[in-house]
Amino acid sequence: MSAPVDLRLGDLAERQSTVGMVRARTPLRISFAGGGTDVSPFPETEGGAVLSATIDRYVLGSLAVHTGSHLRIESRDYGVSVQIVPNEGFTLDGNLDLVKAALRRGWREGPNGYGIILSTSAPPGSGLGASSAMVVTVVAMLNEYYGMPMGEYEIAHLASVIEREDMQIAGGLQDYYAATFGGFNYIEFGQQVVVNPLRVRDYIVGELEMNLVLCFTGGTRRSDHIISDQTDRYTRSESDAIAGLREQKELALAMKAALLKGRLDDFGWLLGQAWQAKKKMSPRITTPLIDEIYEVARKNGAAGGKVTGAGGGGFMLLYVDFESRPRVAEALERLGVTATGFSFAPLGVRAWKR
Fold first, then answer.
1. What's the pLDDT tens digit per position in 304-353?
2. Do residue 18 and residue 134 come from a single domain?
3. Is the same domain home to 189 and 252?
4. What is the DSSP string of 58-74?
């Protein structure tokens, strides 16, 4: 269960570590079903549930101490760097603000400054939880650097507070817990968050890796706009939005059972049902291109599929029997979309001193 955490991360440290460098690696995730049920106010009123797993796409972070007192942030994805004088404040001006917000909570005065470099396998807005994983990466590095006693629930909770409350970016909670804990998880959301790690048999993991593919739909999107629309529809008691969310929750439970029992044909079909339920939550979730990708994949042998995040773009996850993968890949190539395989990552965020 999620535990209370002192949100003044830096104030908890008795001493600053003398380490010269901290590294961190955080996996991205794919969500099979339940996305949206982790977005307030649904979990508080009805309880949410998400089935997800982490994959071999990562946020990489490095924190290196230097002799000056300033802080430096570099994003290799955007080719942007900023320098901060902490005593002058952490100004949020649109340049790497999520990292600044994490440092605003985590920095504490000491004899040295440090630089942080971040690199991500997928861009923010791709539907793989990249921005949330990046915040988890920074929190984990600060946790290691300052010698903090924070556990997985505390790291995930603090990362969620930074993005959802401090930055006021609309969204759910699943990404922080998936990235922090890693592996296959059935995560429940209500007054508290409970992460239920799943012991999925090796042969089932192997079959999934042979039969699941990711395809990039050609553009990223601002998920907070879609999520805000979904939330507004739920609070207005629109029947489709309510039905879609409730179906997502039921499908997460059904897919968990199919996964653990190795009923992978059912799992693939349920993935498609999760997509149909998801589209009820907001008309902004799909686009003509996404609909075309899905229909072409289905006609060529895919059992089911869905977008991996809030929708509107990013990656689509497809369940395609291994024998049908070449045919589906060729059909998608004609649309200008590349289908790629991946492996699952059993471990969540890891930070270590170097």
1. 999 997 677 789 999 999 999 999 999 999 999 999 999 999 999 999 99
2. yes
3. no
4. EEEEEEEEESSS-EEEE
Same domain as 93, residue 130: yes
**pTM surpassing 0.70?**
yes
| Contact (Cβ atoms closer than 8 angstroms) between residue 270 and residue 304 | yes
Give the list of residues 6+ apart from residue 334 with CB closer than 8 angstroms, or none. Answer: none
Is residue 54 located within the same domain as residue 137?
yes
The string of pLDDT tens digits covering residues 281-290 is 888 888 899 9
**Catalytic one among 97, 175, 229, 321?**
175
CATH number at residue 29: 3.30.230.10
- Strand, helix or coil at 129? coil
User: Which ranges constitute the DSSP H helices of 41-162?
Assistant: 42-45, 97-106, 130-145, 152-160
Is the domain of 190 the same as that of 245?
no
Question: 193-197 and 113-120: which strand pairing?
Answer: unpaired
pLDDT digits (tens, 9 = 90+) for 156-179: 999 999 999 999 998 899 999 999
Active site residue 77: no
Report yes or no: 248 and 33 within 8 Å, Cβ to Cβ: yes
Residues present in the chain in total: 354
Residue owning tokens 């968990």: 256
Residue 33 lies in a domain: yes
Q: Which helix (H) or strand (E) holds 210?
A: helix 202-211
Asked if residue 249 belongs to a domain, the reply is yes
Query: 3-state DSSP: the chain helix, strand, coil percent, rounded to 5?
Result: 40, 25, 35
Tell me: do 162 and 206 sit in the same domain.
Answer: no
